[in-house]
Each structure stands twice: as structure tokens, then as C-alpha cells.
Design a protein that fits this description.
About 50% of the residues lie in helices and about 0% in strands.
Amino acid sequence: MQQYRDKDDPHETDSWLPVVLAAHGAILLVIIALMVNYPVVSEWVSAAAQAEFVGPEITSVGPTQLAQPAEPMRIVKNN
């Protein structure tokens, strides 16, 4: 005899939560292991974090010079 399963049962829908948490934990452990064993990786992480969280300290842009045509422009009319 088959059992009827309720689709709104919270125990059925939350079964993916431990899998997601375990995957995030494994990724975090791999990143920490790389940072400990390879110092260059910590520089990559630092640069990525600085690029992600840009503050108001944006470097100032120098004066803009507009391009001028080398020769004067001539308009040709159709007669």
C-alpha cells in the first residue's frame, strides 16, 4: 500500500538545506586551505574583495583634452 505524502510538509521541502550548507562549508574549507598553503591566493582574495566593495575614494581623473581635427572640414554641396 502506498503512503500519501503531503506536498506542503515542511520536512520534505527542507531536506536540501543540509546539502547546501555542507557544500558552502566545503568551499570555504578549500579557500582557507589555499590561502594557508599559497600566499598568492590571499592576495587574489584581497584584490577581489577590494574590487567588490568600492568606496568613495575613487581616483580623480585628470583634465580632459578634446580631440581636434587635423584639417578643417569642408562641406560639399550638390548643385
